[in-house]
Amino acid sequence: MTIDPIHLSLFRNLFEAAAEEMGITLQRVAFSANIKERRDFSCALFSPVGELLAQAAHIPVHLGSMPASVAAVLAHLGSLANGDVAIVNDPFMGGTHLPDITIVSPIFYDGALVGYAANRAHHADVGGISPGSMTLSRHIDEEGIRIEPTLLNRQGVRNMEALERLLAAVRTPDERLGDLEAQLAANHVGAVALRRMIERHSAETVAHYGRALLDYSEQFMARAIAAIPQGGYAFEDVMDDDGAGSGPVPIRVVIRAQGDRVEVDLRTSADQVAGCINCPEAVMRSAVYYCFACLMEDEVPLNAGAFRRIDVLTRPGSLLHALYPAAVVAGNTETSQRVVDVVFGALAQALPELIPAASCGTMSSVALGWTGWTYYETVGGGSGAGPGFDGASAVQCHMTNTLNTPAEALEMQYPLRVRRFERALATGGRGANVGGDGIVREIEALEVCEGTVLSDRRTSRPYGLAGGEAGASGVNDVVRAAGGTIEPLAGKARFQLQPGDVLRIRSAGGGGWGRPAH
Q1: Do residue 360 and residue 213 come from a single domain?
Q2: Which stretches does DSSP call E strand in 112-171?
Q3: Sign (positive or negative) of CA dihedral 438, 274, 327, 137
Q4: What is the pLDDT of residues 414-472, one digit of tens each?
Q5: H or E element that contains 367
Q6: Which DSSP helix (H) or strand (E) runs through 496?
Q7: How far is the C-alpha of 222 from the C-alpha of 226, rounded, in Å?
Q8: Final residue of a domain: which of 153, 187, 217?
Q9: Average pLDDT of 31-46?
Q10: Among 198, 217, 236, which residue terminates a domain?
């Protein structure tokens, strides 16, 4: 069967529209503010052999790693039958961190497997030692319930044992059940969309153009890689600390460009650490793939084909290829951001007129909660400036693509009040082009609650490029209601708030690009 360019574009849009429709359903049906308001979720369609066909423009750290979860499901459970639905969040089986629960549903048409629908959503609590499950942990079991690939539905019948085990482990079971049902609904919508495509165009045609789209994206990535001058490019940066008393923790990369293939070697990065910044392999790959996806033209579809020519080398047992029982909850949110920084830092040597300075380099995760409620969100920062442009201020950068929780939604649902939410002026690095400013967010507790902050770039600073200055590092503290004293918090900290206490987060600014004029 030949490839018609018009039909190729048509099917690209049909696949992507199906994934977007899944996302709209998940957002509208979900119970939690984290999914409904912040949109901390991702949706995708996969081929019958588990290759990523299309993704909605959701969370980069989810979508680059979701194929690993689909692969783990198929390897662990074998072929899924019609009506089966698999659930998984295990970071050592393609997951990111335990709050990110992935649902995988096979799609059948006339008795034949034609693809998979999958989505991943961040649940605001999955148990563990602190509310919100963003824990200052040293062992994966402290972070919540770990779900190896398991059938949530078996041929259309709910696996009540698996569901009850999950709900018994969390602090907010009703909300978790509502969000899980929303995830199931999203996959159903994806399945309906794919079947509709087959009814109109035939299964053979849909499969043919699915494969063609993978090859199409591969060729665009080959062109982007071929534009990198051949040679080796090394870069090193650090995580401030591991949350357990050790730091700084180095991350090192060597990128070797050879024709239209590239090798990304991260094997000399630090060993696995005691604290919670260890990075699952799937997360590390997501960060690497994201960097190279940024080199392609905007209109190119991102799918499995785009990453065929990128060889990623890691060392099992290292910070960037964590093995059980490593604590990993901040590897997804924090270490992934530093992987982006080091890969871009190396690429800047090869493509100095293309790569921007470092962005804020942290998701600044905040989790608060007490009996019966949990709140979680990430705080944006400044993006790095680049050749010919200033960095954007007060945005989510790189591996996260969520929104903030609106003050109205937060205050309606939780015993919290937003006291301040504004740009952190003059935190971007100076340069010919100025780095973006970070964010100041202040949240007042109206009741006693327990909290955790997992952040980075509190001692290190986002680097500038081409003579630009580094962005300002961030600051965490608590303003106590009793006496108004200010209690500094570490970048990774666990604390308690009394009524009237205010948690204050100031995130880092982005690096500047080019030498400042003055």
Answers
A1: no
A2: 112-122, 150-154, 157-158
A3: negative
A4: 999 999 999 999 999 999 999 999 999 999 999 999 999 999 999 999 999 999 999 99
A5: strand 365-370
A6: strand 492-497
A7: 6
A8: 217
A9: 93
A10: 217
